C-alpha cells in the first residue's frame, strides 16, 4: 500500500518556465510534508517543507502548496533552471512516527536550455 | 565539516550471504536512520537508532538488523541475502527528535548488488 504517490515518473520543461511536480497521499495522519532533490551518485538533499497547518510555503524559486482536503501537494519551481534537473521526491511524516519519512516514488525533472 | 559518510560505496554479494554496511553520521548528530531505495522507487524506511537502541522500525524482516555505537556511528546487517535485497542503502543522520528538515542529512549510499 503506497501511502505517498508521485504519478508522473518524469517531466520535461524549458528553461525559464514553471515546473510543477505533484504528489498525492492517502494517510490522513501525515502532518508534515517535504520535498527532496536527488542527483545521481548523491544522497537526497532537503529542498522545502510544509506543515499541515499551512497551505503554502515559499523559499526563493520554490513554492510548495498543500491541499489537505484533496490530500495533494505540489512543488512549483519558477523559473526553472538546467541545474534543477534531478529526481524529486515527495515525503511525509507524522508526529507519532518521530522523524521517519515515507517517500513517493520520485519524479525525474529535466530542464532543457 | 564532514557530512554523512557511508562505506563501502559499492559491493556485490552472493545470494544467501551476509553483509554489513557502515555509516558515520554528520558531526553533532546522534540519530541514524537507514533507508532502502530499490531501482526506480523512493527510499523506504528500515529503522532508526538513537542512544544505541532501535527506536523505530519499518516493514522489514528480521534479516535486517542494526547497531549503533557510542560514537553514534551505525551498522546495517542483512542476513541470508535475497536477489530482492539489491538496492541503494541510504543512511541519514539527525539530532535527536529534530523534524526531518532540520539537519536530516543523507549520505550518498551504498549500492548493494546480490547475484
Taking pLDDT < 50 over at least 5 consecutive residues as the criterion, the unreliable ranges of chain B are none
Structural class of chain A: mainly beta
Q: Please bin the fraction of helical residues of chain B.
A: under 10%
Tell me the major beta sheet of chain B: 7 strands, mixed
For the CA atoms, what is the radius of gyration of chain A?
A: 13 Å
What oligomeric assembly is this protein in? Answer: heterodimer
Low confidence ranges of chain A: none
Number of strands of chain B: 11
Shape category of chain B: globular
Q: Summarize the helix and strand pattern of chain B as letters.
A: EEEEEEEEEEE
**How many helical elements of chain B?**
0
Distance between the termini of chain A: 38 Å
Number of separate strands of chain A: 11
- How confident overall, as mean pLDDT of chain B? 93
Could you report the average pLDDT of chain A, rounded to the nearest whole number?
94
Largest pleated sheet of chain A = 6 strands, mixed
Task: Give the ordered list of helices and strands of chain A.
Answer: EEEEEEEEEEE
Structural class of chain B: mainly beta
CA-based gyration radius of chain B: 13 Å
Strand portion of chain B: over 45%
Q: What is the CA–CA distance across the termini of chain B? A: 37 Å
Amino acid at each position: 500500500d503506497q501511502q505517498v504517490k508521485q504519478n508522473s515518473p518524469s517531466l520535461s520543461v524549458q528553461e525559464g518556465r514553471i515546473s510543477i511536480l505533484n504528489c498525492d497521499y492517502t494517510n490522513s495522519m501525515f502532518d508534515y510534508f517535504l520535498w527532496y532533490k536527488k542527483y545521481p551518485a548523491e544522497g537526497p538533499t532537503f529542498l522545502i517543507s510544509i506543515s499541515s497547518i499551512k497551505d503554502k510555503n515559499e523559499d526563493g524559486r520554490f513554492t510548495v502548496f498543500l491541499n489537505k482536503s484533496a490530500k495533494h501537494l505540489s512543488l512549483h519551481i519558477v523559473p526553472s533552471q538546467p541545474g534543477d534537473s534531478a529526481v524529486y521526491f515527495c515525503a511525509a511524516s507524522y508526529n507519532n512516527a518521530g522523524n521517519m519519512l515515507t517517500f513517493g516514488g520520485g519524479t525525474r525533472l529535466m530542464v532543457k536550455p | 565539516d564532514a557530512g554523512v559518510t557511508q562505506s563501502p560505496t559499492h559491493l556485490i554479494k552472493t545470494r544467501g550471504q551476509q553483509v554489513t554496511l557502515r555509516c558515520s553520521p554528520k558531526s553533532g548528530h546522534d540519530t541514524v536512520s537507514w533507508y532502502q531505495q530499490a531501482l526506480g522507487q523512493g527510499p523506504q524506511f528500515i529503522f532508526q537508532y538513537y542512544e544505541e537502541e532501535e527506536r523505530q522500525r519499518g516493514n522489514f524482516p528480521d534479516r535486517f538488523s542494526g547497531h549503533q555505537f557510542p560514537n553514534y556511528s551505525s551498522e546495517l546487517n542483512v542476513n541470508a541475502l535475497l536477489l530482492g535485497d539489491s538496492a541503494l542503502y541510504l543512511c541519514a543522520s539527525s539530532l535527536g527528535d529534530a523534524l526531518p528538515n532540520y539537519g536530516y542529512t543523507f549520505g550518498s549510499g551504498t549500492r548493494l548488488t546480490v547475484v
